[in-house]
Design goal:
The complex is a heterodimer of chains A (about 290) and B (about 300). Chain A has one domain: P-loop containing nucleotide triphosphate hydrolases (Rossmann fold, 3-Layer(aba) Sandwich), CATH 3.40.50. In chain A, the strands form two sheets. In chain A, strands 6-7-8-3-9-10-12-11 form an eight-stranded mixed β-sheet, sandwiched between helices. The longest helix of chain A is centred in the middle third of the chain and has 18 residues. About 0% of the residues of chain A have low confidence. Chain A is built from ten helices and twelve strands. With about 290 residues, chain A is α/β, with parallel strands linked by helices. By secondary structure, chain B is α/β, with parallel strands linked by helices. Chain B has a domain of about 170 residues: Rossmann fold, CATH 3.40.50. In chain B, about 30% of the residues lie in helices and about 20% in strands. Chain B is built from eleven helices and eleven strands. The two termini of chain B are about 30 Å apart. The model of chain B has no long low-confidence stretch (mean pLDDT about 90). The chains are: A alpha/beta (about 290), B alpha/beta (about 300). The interface between A and B is large, with 38 and 48 residues.
């Protein structure tokens, strides 16, 4: 049974003329970390928001425990599928002390909790209980992100959907949070969808990877395969992007492969929109098969 | 060869509190100098001070300022006059640094006219050359665009062109790649490197990204909590670091090969900076002697530097 997935998901922003996410199908299993990479504007964050049902889909479905998400199942879904965003400053109410921020999910879902429950949550993200009376402004950026994480863990979720969870943090703190995410994921058997523009971050945590370009999945597979032996020309370029010169990057209009203007393998066959082909490791390119 | 620009013992203060203490830099033609540090290390503040652009309430001083062999008094009008002409600064956010209601070409023309005093007849040629220099294949088309019609990477390159239009000798680039993704990131760094190599520009790259510094910088200064931890050629500082903080930063960077090794603790806020070595509370090598502030000697400010591997 499908644990958590999106099927043929397309999302269009208000007043936009094209879809930000185009016909995306992805799945994540318990204990698995799906990394989603792509450049800015590729639709990564939009995909995550639609997956969380925070943005309406133009077409396609979010699947949870084998069934399409409905307004009736949304409340249960929200409880067990938790988001973690880039900027904990925005995720935490500046007026609420840590104690109140952590208590809120219990109150919303009418669950019993005690001071010890809250302290235990902080302990799980390696923060001392002394922080309970503090407000976000009195915390460091790393501490704020841990509090946001503790809050996401409050109701024992089954999955975390994370959008650039360490991008706003300093390098020395980034490593602390990445290590913590890994430990929590293993200890709780969480499923994770991790969106990041930082390939090294995704590489550190992800077991499977999907590469997004212009709203479409152009490649997906086990992390070791995608990073070790990329198939799509875009993935190859993304991974090789050390220091190199390029022209005026442009995204080509559909139909056709959106990457064709930037691709040195482009051929007339690229004027048709390619589909993913391959087994566990698949990519969408008619030229490099 | 003497340095193009030298500053010695730069201090930036907010009232009685020193935010940056004793930063000395020697910038050379054709070289990229990376100023590396995490938030609050003082990397941007020290460069704003050099340009006389500090926000209200902050003050700065330096023991010496020397430009092309000529000594200038810190804060004098000669020092002020460096800004824009001799030293240009490319700010972090390209979308707010460009005028949203002015075509790219006109923005460049303004700088060419006002700062570089290029006569009107030559402006179109200079403008096209500048846009080509920053990697645009069709400069004439780009000149007709408004900033919002360009991608983030293109805007960043236009901003770079406007900085170069004044013909500066030193270009300070503040986190030029933070807002960009991997592909564009490499492009902008390559452009900075090119600028230094081809036109003898001295580039100061302000960054928190060690990989960026490693990729393009000839020299590196690692700042921690307002003080220099380590300084020297990139090959030595980032390949064979001696300061425990530099080594820690390198190990903390995720590489995808196993989990990164975190540095324990957090960067102290200015009000909680410890006495002595500022890195002491987070350092595994710290001892009693670290309660004194270490001096920068041989490129490292540490009483217990890591052994230099042969």
């Amino acid at each position: 049974m499908t644990f958590l997935a999106v099927e043929h998901l397309s999302v269009r922003h208000r007043r936009a003329v094209t879809d930000a996410v185009r016909d995306v199908s992805l799945e994540v299993a318990p204990g698995e970390v799906l990394g989603v990479v792509g450049e800015s504007g590729s639709g990564k964050s939009t995909l995550l928001k639609a997956w969380l049902s925070l943005l309406p889909a133009r077409s396609g479905l979010v699947l949870w425990q084998g069934r399409p998400l409905t307004s009736a199942s949304l409340r249960a879904f929200r409880r067990v599928v938790q988001p973690v965003f880039q900027d904990p400053r925005a995720a935490l109410d500046p007026r609420l002390a840590v104690r109140e921020a952590l208590a809120e999910p219990f109150q919303v879902h009418r669950e019993p909790f005690s001071e010890a429950t809250l302290a235990r949550l902080l302990d799980e993200v390696q923060l001392p209980a002394e922080l309970l009376p503090r407000r976000p402004a009195a915390l460091s950026a790393g501490q704020r992100q841990r509090v946001a994480l503790a809050r996401a863990l409050a109701l024992s979720p089954r999955a975390l959907l994370l959008d650039e969870p360490v991008s706003a943090l300093d390098v020395s703190v980034q490593a602390q949070v990445l290590t913590l995410l890994h430990q929590l994921q293993v200890a709780r058997g969480l499923a994770m969808v991790l969106v990041s523009h930082d390939l090294a971050v995704v590489r550190t945590l992800a077991t499977r990877v999907a590469v997004l370009f212009a709203g479409r999945v152009v490649e997906q597979g086990p992390a070791a395969d995608v990073f070790g032996d990329p198939g799509h020309p875009y993935t190859r370029q993304l991974l090789a992007a050390g220091i190199e010169r390029g022209g005026d990057w442009a995204t080509a209009p559909e139909p056709g492969c959106a990457f064709r203007l930037r691709c040195r393998h482009a051929q007339p066959s690229c004027l048709e929109t390619p589909t993913l082909s391959g087994g566990a490791h698949a990519w969408a390119c008619p030229v490099l098969k | 060869m003497p340095a193009l620009l030298e500053v010695e013992a730069l201090v930036v203060s907010s009232g009685p509190v020193a935010l940056v203490e004793g930063l000395s830099l020697a910038l050379h033609r054709g070289r990229v100098h990376a100023l590396v540090g995490e938030s609050g290390s003082g990397k941007t503040l020290s460069m704003l001070a050099l340009l006389g652009l500090l926000p209200k309430g902050l003050s700065s001083s330096a023991a010496r300022l020397c430009v092309e062999g000529e000594r200038l008094a810190w804060g004098s009008s000669a020092h002020e006059a460096l800004r824009g002409r001799t030293v240009a600064m490319m700010l972090q956010d390209a979308s707010s640094a460009l005028d949203p209601v002015m075509r790219v070409g006109r923005q460049l023309d303004e700088v060419l006219a006002a700062v570089a005093k290029v006569p009107p007849s030559e402006r179109a040629t200079r403008r096209a050359a500048l846009l080509a220099d920053v990697g645009f294949h069709e400069p004439a088309q780009v000149a007709q665009r408004y900033p919002h019609e360009l991608s983030g990477g293109m805007r960043q390159r236009v901003l770079l062109a406007t900085c170069l239009a004044a013909g500066p000798k030193v270009l300070v680039a503040d986190e030029p790649t933070t807002a960009l993704d991997a592909v564009l990131h490499g492009q902008v760094l390559a452009l900075l490197r090119d600028g230094a190599v081809r036109s003898g520009l001295s580039v100061v790259l302000i960054t928190h990204d060690l990989e960026a510094a490693r990729a393009v910088a000839d020299d590196v200064t690692v700042l921690y909590a307002g003080r220099v931890a380590e300084q020297g050629p990139t090959a030595r500082c980032l390949e064979r670091p001696r300061h425990p903080y530099t080594a820690g930063l390198l190990a903390a960077r995720p590489t995808g090969r196993g989990l990164p090794v975190p540095i324990p603790g957090a960067i102290p806020p200015v009000s909680e900076r410890p006495e002595g070595c500022r890195f002491r509370p987070r350092c595994t090598r710290a001892s009693a002697v670290c309660e004194q502030a270490p001096r920068l000697e041989g490129g490292v400010a540490c009483f217990h530097p890591l052994a230099e591997r042969p």
